[in-house]
């Protein structure tokens, strides 16, 4: 099985953040983002969908939605760096 197949399997079993996936697969967060972009297209071809649970600012509670797959470093509303990262799931 390829790394991307393994990522899809892990995301089908539950939601994970980019950092959690990087630790599981022992690679950089940048590599995980590249894999997630490809996995998103692959699962769509199989009739499934990858869901992105938005990042949440732990200071002001704002949901931070992003148009691309990436980590969020700061809240755009209050500029706090205490942000719960976005989580990904496949169904």
Based on the model shown, name its key terms:
single chain, 91 residues, alpha+beta, Arc Repressor Mutant, subunit A, three-stranded antiparallel sheet, 3 helices, 6 strands, 40% helix, 19% strand, globular
Short description:
With 91 residues, the protein is of the alpha+beta class.
Could you explain how this protein is built, in words?
The protein is of the alpha+beta class. The chain has a single domain, classed as Arc Repressor Mutant, subunit A. Helices cover 40% and strands 19% of the residues. The chain is built from three helices and six strands, in the order H-E-H-H-E-E-E-E-E. The strands form two sheets. Strands 1-6-2 form a three-stranded antiparallel beta sheet. It has a three-stranded antiparallel beta sheet with strand order 4-3-5, with no helix packed on it. A hairpin with a 5-residue loop joins strand 3 and strand 4. Helix 1 packs across helix 3 and helix 2 crosses helix 3. The chain is globular and about 40 Å long. It starts with a helix and ends with a strand. The relative contact order is 0.23. The model has no long low-confidence stretch (mean pLDDT 95).
